Fold each of these.
Amino acid sequence: MTRLKNVYIFTGGTLTDEMLSYNNLDEGIIIGVDRGVDWLINHGITPDYFVGDFDSIDIVLLERIKKYYSNKVKIYPSEKDETDTELAMQLAISLKPQNIIIFGGTGSRLDHVIANVHILLQAERNDISSVIYGTNNRIRVLLSGKSKKIMKSHFSYVSIFPFTEVVAGVTLEGFKYPLVKGVMKIGFPYGVSNEIVEDNGTISLDTGILLIIESKD
Amino acid sequence: MTRLKNVYIFTGGTLTDEMLSYNNLDEGIIIGVDRGVDWLINHGITPDYFVGDFDSIDIVLLERIKKYYSNKVKIYPSEKDETDTELAMQLAISLKPQNIIIFGGTGSRLDHVIANVHILLQAERNDISSVIYGTNNRIRVLLSGKSKKIMKSHFSYVSIFPFTEVVAGVTLEGFKYPLVKGVMKIGFPYGVSNEIVEDNGTISLDTGILLIIESKD
């Protein structure tokens, strides 16, 4: 059996039309989360799954969804331990894809953004490559002993931060400021605003967890 | 000698007029950072110190500042290990105040936001209470064995996240969802969107470091 390639999660926060032109959107499974469902349907896309407490979705739309897609709708109470995006992530992980791409997930509510960053760990720990694709930022996490290749793109800056107290063996190749087996500790954000100078940059890590943020103004 | 009460850092990101009505702004020391200097001067406020590489400030303004405030201007090269806000934080710490309040510091560049969150640790480790006061978020960190009181305010939601791999002995009092000696681990953001139901909420912690984010829509 060929492993499913991509699951796309469209969640709250800022969603833009640009995200619809992402490669291979047609070939993946699409999960709409709460207000992301509204947004997808307004853009002529019916998600494969609908997840959320739907406390911020149009009630008429919700009734229509429940009627036509009853087997694809997962409604959760609004007071629960997990966020809606976390529930969507758990559904996505259960589909065992190679990649999970979260569109949206960033915006003015920093608490939601940080929660979404934590959720990336759940995918990576299941050996699924995952990314939050926001308007001004693309966010990944890198686990111990792993490496990631980042393509040079219109996200001009690549910053790395320790996501655990200490990260060690941080190696950056293809970057303006390369690094060999560096150590970083929380509280000292010296990995801000690096740039990829080759076609792509590779980040690898021996121990700890690294947060990788590509940004543009 | 009475200890200096407040140092205010006005930095890049989103700055709003509301921030000027903050209590006791007149009585504290004000540090302008790079574009924050522009913003302050446009609002009729001359900072006590000017910090940055000033790569994004009006050149005429910069020349005027250098002429009149030469002893208060700290210009750094634009390629350096520290961010401008970190240099301002180090200056603020050297003044040994009780509190450091960073205005701005949040915005669309998540890498800058995360860098600023890390920088808060430098103040707290020097026993200086510190906060990033953004437009939609107020951000603090809480060190091992410490507690913080958060006043109920127009920031409706209070979320907590582990900033180290594990945090233990997390106790929340005065909250809608209280907690006694809880344990949190990175990857599981179950502390999102709590609310203060008393006049104030108290958060205390035995081990690890906690990230506290108040948010509003």
Note: Chain A has two domains: 1-135, 137-217.
Amino acid sequence: MSSSDSDALVLSDDPLHPANLIPELCRNFYQLGWVTGTGGGIGIRVGDKVYIAPSGVQKERILPVHIFVLPYPQAAPSPHTDRVFLRRPSLNLKESACTPLFWNAFELREAGSCIHTHSQNAVMATLLWQGKEFTISHQEMIKGVRVGGVARALSYLDTLVVPIIENTPNKEDLKDSMAEAMKEYPNAAGVLVRRHGAYVWGSDWEKGKTQAECLDYLFEIGVKMRQAGITTVVSS
Amino acid sequence: MSSSDSDALVLSDDPLHPANLIPELCRNFYQLGWVTGTGGGIGIRVGDKVYIAPSGVQKERILPVHIFVLPYPQAAPSPHTDRVFLRRPSLNLKESACTPLFWNAFELREAGSCIHTHSQNAVMATLLWQGKEFTISHQEMIKGVRVGGVARALSYLDTLVVPIIENTPNKEDLKDSMAEAMKEYPNAAGVLVRRHGAYVWGSDWEKGKTQAECLDYLFEIGVKMRQAGITTVVSS
Amino acid sequence: MSSSDSDALVLSDDPLHPANLIPELCRNFYQLGWVTGTGGGIGIRVGDKVYIAPSGVQKERILPVHIFVLPYPQAAPSPHTDRVFLRRPSLNLKESACTPLFWNAFELREAGSCIHTHSQNAVMATLLWQGKEFTISHQEMIKGVRVGGVARALSYLDTLVVPIIENTPNKEDLKDSMAEAMKEYPNAAGVLVRRHGAYVWGSDWEKGKTQAECLDYLFEIGVKMRQAGITTVVSS
Amino acid sequence: MSSSDSDALVLSDDPLHPANLIPELCRNFYQLGWVTGTGGGIGIRVGDKVYIAPSGVQKERILPVHIFVLPYPQAAPSPHTDRVFLRRPSLNLKESACTPLFWNAFELREAGSCIHTHSQNAVMATLLWQGKEFTISHQEMIKGVRVGGVARALSYLDTLVVPIIENTPNKEDLKDSMAEAMKEYPNAAGVLVRRHGAYVWGSDWEKGKTQAECLDYLFEIGVKMRQAGITTVVSS
């Protein structure tokens, strides 16, 4: 594929093209404090293509030409096979280290986007909830959360359960434990990673962003409540 | 009504036209943390027309063409009658679920705008004030609050009382309890909804926004005071 | 004076003209949370003219045409004399209620600007320091503070003292107690008003803004320290 | 050197030219609360030239023409020799008081940028960690930190150690103690200054900014953890 063919995959006048959305959303997430220090990011899948930001770059300064495009589906890379790309940026860049984790959301939830944040609300939630679940009920924002493959809405009276997995020195090693948690909790709207952050997904980029905002709001209010000595789960 | 007639209701060069104001104010509210995760919003009434944002959309990305226009006054929808619109956006959108609650402010207070926030300051206030009232006195910001139908200003020495109602699984069910609280507290400048947020209104969009900012400031400082062990109501 | 003559006092291409600066700085202060709900603001004096924003308007939406211009010096209004203006906006607006308090800074400190904030850091400082002084030492930011008529810099080892006066139901009544505090504390860089906010000044608009930022930073860190049980004044 | 020759050193259409980057980054840092009240800033070195902002100016309002350019390397000024400049702004400005401290990073770490913040997270960290080291382990963000001359990455399991030096009344006096700490801690990614802030560096402007964000995130979460009674260093 020639370079100009490849660029055509990420150059578009449409502000809603994934290669335009990823830079814009990452600036948004930077202002929310989710992706400072090059951490965090978003992967978007539209049909048979996945768009992913580079690893180790300032997330609020990504440009469309920095975006990787990958065919979907594809098998995970192995000792004998590499990851397949439709486009690599013409720079010395590597795809986001979150790629295998985003893939979990695409494969196990048919997600159209997956967002990874280093939000301090998420990290504090994993420090104050020492077990393997963050739980909260009786918050209006819970009604914004969609769970399961059919995107079912929760009720205000439902208890939201977000599984917490343990962090690992290498991000690649998170892939299996995240997948395991997603299978054990088929209704999970996201996965918390202890002392690290959260992965949240949705059927498209809008739903992914909305879910990330709802969950982060709930992590934040949950942390405030626990620190104020208020229980977060009310038995109805 | 033809589509172009309908669009004329929301397309205007005037930045103060309600269909331009709603998108701008919602971006403002997003930055304040009031309307993340598609929650919250604002309804504006100018004379015999009401302008309302859609339900379930990202509030910071609303466009004028997304705005619903409704005639005012009109009876609440019933099992036999639908809500009446002058304009529906040509998209698969539903009007904000807050519509009946905004209507409370228009009907019971002759309000020109009503703002709904999911502000964490409001939610924390409803968690720390477990009864049916949030109260605070001796704060300069209280002087910014307008109460009652005649928009009377409060004194620095007055005690501001904001009624707190219980949240319900369905937003429609809040309409009656909000109306009841507004009648029981004719001087209320807004209504808090436990574990949910706040509804605040004003005689026009500016007053509504100003009132929402004053009250949110007072919820925030009230929460800080209570958490620091400082009483919020001083007996003069 | 004709309307066009009057407009010439506030219409300028120079971004540093006071009538352009006041709107810009108020947007800045809004983002800092200092002037929400129409509270707070800034008055600028350049030579024999004082520029002041209107009362009761959204501070982040002021336009140059909204600015009042007053001759300086002039006597305070009395039962028999009105305040004198070079320009009033052609709208139903009243000058900021802070005008007499800004005048204190112009007259007693020869200030070129005076900023009033409702910052919650300032209010919390007045709640946690129950006496008539806020004090802090051994903070690098103290070196940014300028005190006294000769704009002397403080040392890192100095104790910054900011007098706290009691709030009054009417802002006009604050004028005398603020003036008294400024005379009693000739080195004060600003005055805190209990349960209300702060007044801070400087020899020009830049110095006023810088001083307001330094003091607000010190109120914020002081509140955090006291809440963490750390004393704010170290005996050297 | 004529004035136009001198201006050529700071006027460029390239947004990544240091004289364009410094103003932009300082606006960014202002929004993060790192450089209010004229405090803090950034120095950038590209090859044999160092670019530095003025002292005592509003950091969010710097223009390219305000930037100082210095040849690198050069000896520290002494009683008999002045600092050497390739360009001084044609205004009554003095170079940032941080210049000798930035020089430490350039000389001892071959840094391409050095950032100084007055972040309250950094100051609170120095108040809650009363010894000479801030330490934290088991945080994903630690993996973003680069240590030592070869920019080695830390593991999630490593303990990050940031030395804390005591503040001094005169910034010049910090130069030696900062250099001493950098030699004693060859793997330090930055230096905290008690009751003052932090100095952080990187091999170029991007790495410096990234490191400053990573460390500030860790100071913030460390302070939150300690205040919640959670130990920040886990023994593996």
Note: The mean pLDDT of chain D is 94.
Amino acid sequence: MQTYTVAIVGATGAVGAKILDKLIERKFPFRSVKLLASSRSAGTVIQAGGRLFTIEEAKPESFDGVDFAFFSAGGAISENLASEATRWGTVVIDNTSAFRMDAEVPLVVPEVNPKALDSHNGLIANPNCSTIQMVVALNPIKEAFGLKKILVSTYQAVSGAGADAILELKSQSGQFDSRAENSASQLPSAGAERHYPIAFNAIPQIDSFDDMGYTKEEWKMINETKKIFNDSTIAVSATCVRLPVVTGHSESVYVEIEKEGITAEEFSRAISKAPGVIVQDNPATQTYPMPLFAENKDDVYVGRIRKDPDHPRGFHLWIVADNLLKGAALNSVQIAEQLLKNRDAQNN
Amino acid sequence: MQTYTVAIVGATGAVGAKILDKLIERKFPFRSVKLLASSRSAGTVIQAGGRLFTIEEAKPESFDGVDFAFFSAGGAISENLASEATRWGTVVIDNTSAFRMDAEVPLVVPEVNPKALDSHNGLIANPNCSTIQMVVALNPIKEAFGLKKILVSTYQAVSGAGADAILELKSQSGQFDSRAENSASQLPSAGAERHYPIAFNAIPQIDSFDDMGYTKEEWKMINETKKIFNDSTIAVSATCVRLPVVTGHSESVYVEIEKEGITAEEFSRAISKAPGVIVQDNPATQTYPMPLFAENKDDVYVGRIRKDPDHPRGFHLWIVADNLLKGAALNSVQIAEQLLKNRDAQNN
């Protein structure tokens, strides 16, 4: 069997560490893994899958001989180093937003648009976490019934804002009585002008605002969904909200389908056939997805499937997934696996 | 000035206590207040506004001589005692769901449909907390531009599930590391078959389910909105979710208006003129409503006002209010105040 040299840029971050875990767990055919990070972390030893890995400083020449490089160290690092990597012939799978809307760069969720990988210039983008879980759940609906409109309100976990945001939630959560006066420095984002406590709160801002009053997170959901579905005629709009949840994004999604006369049961059955999706939907037993129980799970969970009482083509669903796994690390590794499948198919 | 005898049924509950506070704070012209509760609480002394009040057991004859009775002790108590009270000539303002959809019973938010009070049989219903804040914010939109469709996803606080739910959130919040195993007995509701931890979670169930897969809370929002707006042609649908927030419900609301060509600025200006509403909406300064800062406030806060990029008559807004005040106690007292205004108007 052919084996590959793999690099992870941003190996000290939460997503980088989970990419390494998934490569080992899913038996990706690597012969070696280079863990790359800033010079500050160089020399640090990391244990994963019973083996030890030493962090090296990420440099342009780090990619010599690397077949696949996973980038998850922020948009600026990707902008600086990804083209250096591709120059060495490395295929870059980038988890930042740097290249996602670049027309030359495929934006891929393997269950949804694997064919987008057929042509690329060495650079493949992994979509935003909140987009991935939504398109995985909605793709079978689009294929079976057509999608006219998507409206989503998110309930997003703090782990999407980094490890320090998790620590801040933990600390504030112990200070119940002073909850409105708790000090805050991490949310809506560490770099924001103003910070608000997240414990016992809901912050309707993820990333920065544009002139229309939308946040970048909301535009990611709007634009990435249209690109992944390769259909700019689907109407998409979004409201993104950060919650005191550690890991696991939830989404209240409303869709208008094209086909007439579809029942909630037919809608549900279409979703249940989708790869990577588990329907958890039984009101009689209070069965529905919740973020607390999606942590560390690979699948996308869907429940609360219902028909709009006032619109014959309107449906609700509630979509939950681990934002660090299917929303980031797992999807990135699945992209690499899909590339190998495509190569095998070409070679046969 | 004429003065009145007032009773509060369920005076030991969170909403009952706040009704007493609001009667005192707003100088409701009472000459005496009877605090009524179950026999278990009879004799308990409560302090409010520098005065002492002794709880009495609620009985059919408790209402002799009572002008206004506020009921907030659960639907079963209202069903048993409200008609007894009206038989004594008492006007009942009921905060439970027992009579809200009764065609004979006005369902009133004074800023929205005060005229509904013109005819009643002694019984007036206070709407559900999540409905009140939404209709207060949307009423000026309905009046200025017409409303075709409302889609709401809620972010609701645990105080709506009672004092024990607040204590459970506090206790679980201190147990960060065991979050998925924390014991739970209060949510989605104390009487539910299965319970889930609320800390670090989002539970997409408030109240029990019907055959269509909707919860009672969702139907309350759908049906009460149409009744208060006195317009069954407005399409309404809802998804209701409980969050680890103490007090303060938030709502991500999407509306389609009837009028063409309205800008987000015009939409916002219409809302800002509404009584009881404060627009907090400035992306440049990260100004938007948050539940943590709405606790103990009377007003309904609105922000994140935006136009749907893909629908010329679609708008988003984010509505936050204290669910125990405008959502319950304050609105109940405002109903009584409105009844007095109407009497004054008739007498002049």
Note: The first helix of chain A runs from residue 14 to 25.
Amino acid sequence: MSTYWSELTASLEPYVPGEQPKDRTYIKLNTNENPYPPSPKALEAIREAAGADLRLYPDPTCDALCRTIAAYYGVTKEHVFVGNGSDEILAFAFPAFFSARQPILFPDITYSFYPVYARLYGIPYITVPTDEQFRIDPQTYAIPNGGVIVPNPNAPTARFLIVNGIKEILETNKDRVVIVDEAYIDFGGESVVPLIAEYPNLLVVQTLSKSRSLAGLRVGMALGHPELIEGLNRIKNSFNSYTLDRLALAGAIAAIEDREYFAETNRKVVATRERTTAALRELGFEVIDSLANFVFVTHPVKAAEELFAALKERGILVRYFNKPRIDRYLRVSIGTDEEMDALLGALREIAG
Amino acid sequence: MSTYWSELTASLEPYVPGEQPKDRTYIKLNTNENPYPPSPKALEAIREAAGADLRLYPDPTCDALCRTIAAYYGVTKEHVFVGNGSDEILAFAFPAFFSARQPILFPDITYSFYPVYARLYGIPYITVPTDEQFRIDPQTYAIPNGGVIVPNPNAPTARFLIVNGIKEILETNKDRVVIVDEAYIDFGGESVVPLIAEYPNLLVVQTLSKSRSLAGLRVGMALGHPELIEGLNRIKNSFNSYTLDRLALAGAIAAIEDREYFAETNRKVVATRERTTAALRELGFEVIDSLANFVFVTHPVKAAEELFAALKERGILVRYFNKPRIDRYLRVSIGTDEEMDALLGALREIAG
């Protein structure tokens, strides 16, 4: 606490990301990173961009990257916004579309950054209960609100809501913005990007951090009606003209254009997830069906916190949330087959 | 205008950066970029970082970069904050230290992003008049306020306020934060970083965009009392956990460590600035003494807007601000000697 802080600063409860320990080498299954390296074409594009032109500002409109994403999704660049990770896009979207006037809605169990954004901007919120299996019921979003944000698949539960479920939320909230956070969509879920033509209130947010193995590059994207994109640009251009550096722009373009590598690595992650899910169930774990690059698991006997600690001792990091309703669960990112074998071996020892 | 925008979004007047035209190749003297490429060691560090580890999140605390900056300035890392360009740091500093309660102060002629930040966060402001020669008088900052921001050297005037002048502003504003924006400090001015030990209300903001030729990499830094740094971190961690990507971190560390290259390129920019200033005066221009990497010039007869257009036609871009008090002036970035010769030749034709 400092006398120089604003009241806002003093009131905040900042987000705490998954730990990035430096004390030893871990099998890192705690922050949903992709176990495979980025596309070699993306790395090559970055190396090529690392030249004299770095003395020059990047394109503040990120025109080339927006066009690449537009071509990928078959829309125009006016439907595309990019940012320094999807977290930054969400940080722009909250003040762009939500306000203190009416509470926004998001699931009770979800990405824990949402309430942090809300507090930063003084936006009230209501957490809408998921059912006992963490399922989102679209009907529960038909209450008065100033906006909705739903991740799909949800984190950390990995639950996927079918497109018709999202449609129902969009239909009952036509006069306010519904953000669908698709950070994990590329691992088997069906994106609602095609719905942006039909629903001017829909903003879809995605990231290159997971399915394109570029967590270290910080690039996210949003797709929606051009009016929503303009709203994001108004906030962004009141905050920072140049949010994406020249290297991130070059790498992101090459990564999105390399569809073959993307399909191949995602296929591998999905195969490992299915194999891991089956093996965990054999070990007695309950595993929620996942369409993400992580699984959310609980053991009928062993406490999650103990499992977390025992795994960490064995050099395996997973994520444990000491929070109501989910403190019996662990979130485990999908690594390579070899890494998951190490996890399964350790769990066999600990809980077998 | 959209019905989906918040009132805030609709009310904003976003910042407009200098143009980045793509229609032809210009001699670009309009956005204060450095004419020399970044340190070869920085480029090499970036290329080395462009590998498999990009699949992993960067260090959210930017520990290694903060330590490098701390070592450079002889402080501890608790005195250092880094961001995605100094613009992002300012965008965090406004809500961290200023509020709607009391107006903040900044010069009437200054970086035009300051009022944009203030509007974004609902912070009232008073612009303090500079004198007829755009000089800042520290005594004029001894009025009730909720914070102060002063760039030194100022932009776009290039005027430098001596350290004792900054001290006077710090002394008369001891119970609120004074931000000194030193984006252009390395071209001959004296930094007030050493004063952070004495003044817990001082935050000094710098950037790698100008003197380290890395506008395309987006890295800025702030130095101040650990309480101020913690305030910035509270806002940042409520906004985006990972604002600097792995490539920016690697490149910035190498650039700051390469003191020799830094000294050499800055020496060249300063020499060219002095030569250009003398030549422009010979051509009849009034040139404000500059300690930045640009000059602010006016011609007694030729209108600035006409000069701007005539230069653009000849393939030379400078910056013209159609604003009260400065609409007779042009801001001209310092390029290479060759580029400045081209500028001088063109001006001889146009205004000679």
Note: DSSP finds eleven helices and 13 strands in chain A.
